[in-house]
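Example record

The entry below shows one chain as it appears in the dataset: sequence first, then structure tokens.
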Amino acid sequence: MRTTVLSEKELASVELDPHRETADGNRDNNYFPPKLEPSRFQIYKGGGRASSRFGGGSNPMRDAKRREEAAKKKREEQQKKQKEAAEKAKAEKAKAAASSASNAKEPQLNVDVKTEKKGDTPEIKVNVRVEKAEAKAVSKKSAAKKNVESGK
């Protein structure tokens, strides 16, 4: 088979049968300028990747997949950091609310309900107390000392 190509520009490269649709026993003569393809043994010996003298050795599909996985991992890490920051802010807000509530000196209402049965009729006793809450900041160390001193 002979094909003549007429053009004003100089050809940079030509490749015959790039999709390997014909039964070609020797593919080394399908390129201009000549290009060496690795043999099956060279591919096997190289661990599945061709050496750099046989056209590179990088796999564009694998490289794209690795880039995609790296981007996905980066997005997941950012989402995790954002979630942790939101949880931390929520915990700090709850802690601040709890400390402001414990520091407030508001009266507390205590109700005790007791039922006793005398004879056939039950008696219900209700005891209501109003206590003022005191704002005392007790550290863990001082609470532990008090427990040790009291023998608990």
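Notes for this example: The chain has a mean pLDDT of 77. DSSP finds three helices and four strands in the chain.
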